[in-house]
Design brief:
This protein is of the alpha/beta class. It contains 15 helices and 13 strands. It has 2 domains: 239 residues, Type I PLP-dependent aspartate aminotransferase-like (Major domain) (Aspartate Aminotransferase, domain 2, 3-Layer(aba) Sandwich); 124 residues, Aspartate Aminotransferase, domain 1 (Alpha-Beta Complex).
């Protein structure tokens, strides 16, 4: 078998993205401006929301969301135990307390039944994660949450949907990432979505130091020499117009990218079905998967090798893999801070120890997918 080199992920960027950056570079408007505004409008239209606010990352999007919802000392925010660490970190940025809920190892998303047990009188916000591009079960979560605000961590879920409603329009606020491992990218960057006018105004000011108007509004106004009023504590979380220009090009390709990934995800599911030790993602008709990643589950009781040994063998043959993500409650900082044991969240521990992401991205060709399948079958 001829060795190929297949990265876990590669962004699809090229001449069109390169050319898009000419305008801001030539006209000199490099900070947040007309290209960011155009990107926001396109993103809002695609995700069926009134407001989309571009920021520096999904992490800063989540931070602004919690600050706008006035999370502070003594408040509890529930997050899934299996997610990227920033989902929990932003709670601590606000002075709140992280409360973990277990996940369903079949979907890797928050387990509604465990979520129900974690709610207390101090629960201020719930952050379900649409992990790997699969929306959480928002009907069940909303039924449990009642009046508690829901912040969707849709870092992986641009273009995904639940029962026909796009991610980002399912909760109080949605937060997205444009890191290069996501379906569409601006290098780094993020987006906040909401249908709440007041929250949109607050987060828009907060991302710009708390200024009452944006830099663009001031410079294009009748008195650009007058500095704005600052009504609140804010942050410098603005996206640049160079990134916005790339985002305008990328968001127009989102559905094309997802459709292509969905085709190859279906190929993987069909071709890998005979491998009894490898469980592939299962998606019901209620969900439109965003396929940011293709994350499998290794049953070590049936597998010829451990999950880590399988990953090592794949790496030796040019096939990059990763664990799906990490169980945050098992990371030393959180384990020590909250005195948590791995088995306290058994679903998250299983996902941590046995999940395996295999390559799925828009720079792969048919021969790459065939190579991955043939090698997995050969183990």
């Amino acid at each position: 078998m001829t060795k190929r080199i297949i990265p876990i992920s590669l962004p699809v960027t090229g001449e069109e993205e390169w050319q898009s950056t000419r305008e801001p570079l030539i006209n000199g408007w490099l900070t947040s401006g007309p290209k960011v505004r155009e990107f926001e409008q396109l993103f809002a239209q695609r995700h069926h929301v009134k407001h989309a606010l571009a920021v520096t990352s999904a992490t800063t999007a989540l931070h602004l969301a919690l600050m706008a919802l006035e999370v502070g000392p003594g408040d509890e925010v529930i997050v899934p135990a299996f997610t990227w660490v920033s989902t929990a970190n932003v709670v601590l940025y606000c002075g709140g307390n992280v409360v973990f809920a277990d996940v369903d190892p079949l979907t890797f998303n928050i387990d509604p039944e465990d979520l129900k047990k974690r709610i207390t009188s101090r629960t201020k916000v719930i952050i379900p994660v649409h992990l790997f591009g699969l929306c959480a079960n928002m009907d069940a979560i909303k039924a449990i949450a009642g009046d508690i605000p829901i912040v969707e961590d849709g870092a992986c879920a641009a273009g995904a949907a639940f029962k026909g409603i796009p991610a980002g329009a399912l909760g109080t606020i949605g937060c997205f990432s444009f890191h290069p491992r996501k379906s569409v990218t601006t290098g780094e960057g993020g987006m906040i979505t909401t249908n709440d006018d007041r929250l949109a105004d607050v987060m828009s000011m907060m991302r710009n130091h708390g200024a009452s108007i944006s830099e663009e509004q001031r410079h294009h106004g009748t008195r650009p020499y007058i500095l704005p009023n600052f009504n609140m504590l804010g942050y410098n979380y603005r996206m640049t117009d160079i990134q916005g220009a790339v985002g305008v090009v990328q968001i127009k390709k989102l559905d094309q990218f997802i459709d292509e990934r969905a085709k190859w995800a279906a190929f993987y599911i069909e071709q890998l079905a005979e491998i009894k030790w490898l469980r592939t993602p299962q998606v019901s008709v209620d969900y439109k998967h965003g396929w940011q990643s293709f994350v499998t589950f290794v049953d070590e009781s049936k597998a010829p090798f451990s999950r880590n040994e399988i990953m090592e063998k794949l790496q030796e043959h040019g096939i990059s893999t990763r664990p799906g993500t990490h169980a945050v409650h098992m990371l030393s900082f959180y384990a020590e801070k909250y005195k948590i044991k791995p088995r306290d969240y058994s679903g998250a521990q299983e996902a941590n120890d046995y999940s395996m992401s295999i390559p799925l991205h828009n720079r792969m060709v048919a021969e790459d997918y065939d190579y991955v399948v043939k090698f997995l079958k050969s183990l």
